[in-house]
Design goal:
Structural class: alpha+beta
Number of domains: 1
Order of helices and strands: HEHEEEEH
Strand content: 15-25%
Number of helices: 3
Number of strands: 5
Helix content: 25-40%
Radius of gyration: 15 Å
Largest sheet: 5 strands, antiparallel
Strand order of the largest sheet: 1-5-4-3-2
Amino acid sequence: MQTHRVTLATALVLGLALSGCAGGLSAAGGPAAAPAGVAAAAPGSGPERDLSADEKKIIMAAVAPSLRDAAAAKYHWPKFSPSTSDPSPNYCATVDAKSPYAAYSGRQAYIVEVGLTGGYVTSATMGLIAGGKDAALVSKTCAKYGLDPNKAT
């Protein structure tokens, strides 16, 4: 019975993530400026870059409600390349953490929709997170956007 609820919830969240409907999902973060000492670049105008500490905090705030003991989570951060054509691109990564569902604990892949201001992450909305054998669902969804949650530095 519990597996059915997880599968149904995963399907619903995946549907929302793919449709781009983030309005009904909880958002985290607020306005953030470019990191200190870094000039704001036009989105998508340069190579992939590391997220700033502030940007990571915004994404962690969006992911944390989906974890058990979020303070003990270990995040893995792939490079980010803001898009000039999408003010709310997706970001895919992984986190080592406990899940509310034991079968999903450990390495979990997630996708968040991020809001950008001046090419920098200023908000994040959870799209989908899954571990265990269902992490492949997230990786497949990320691949549709040309992203790979396992490309952490």
